[in-house]
Amino acid sequence: MSVYSVTVRRPRAPLPKFWRPKLQAPTRDLCRTIHWDLIDRFTSGTADREVLMDWMETGLTYHQFMRYLEMDGTPFTLEAMVAVTDQLAIYEHVVARFARTGRVGFSAPELLTARAAAMVFDSLLDLDRHGLFAKAALWSTEQMLKVWGAKR
Known about the structure:
Shape: elongated
Strand content: under 5%
Low-confidence stretches: none
Number of strands: 0
């Protein structure tokens, strides 16, 4: 009697979420710098169309990241959720102003909204796990391609 071993190749399954890496400290620090830099460009008058698109993409990334964290069981305060959602709500006004005037900037209430959202963004970065931030960044990039696609 002979014994044969047979190897069967199975298709690779996606890695479980707990195998995905979280953001490393230097990347977290860079992300914190980016959203504040975008706001500074709006307020200094140096923002252009590209900065506008980057600011919107950044907000979408953090909004989606917050959704992923919430689905994964992270509780958030109402204030944090409102701050991030309020930023998404001003996108239409900021883009309409840009389309009308060619100027990229905030009104005073919009600036307060953007700063409140950026403070929440700072704290969200420390909560990353399972590669959720990277997943949210990929998602927001896809969304921005749909919105701005051929215009970029």
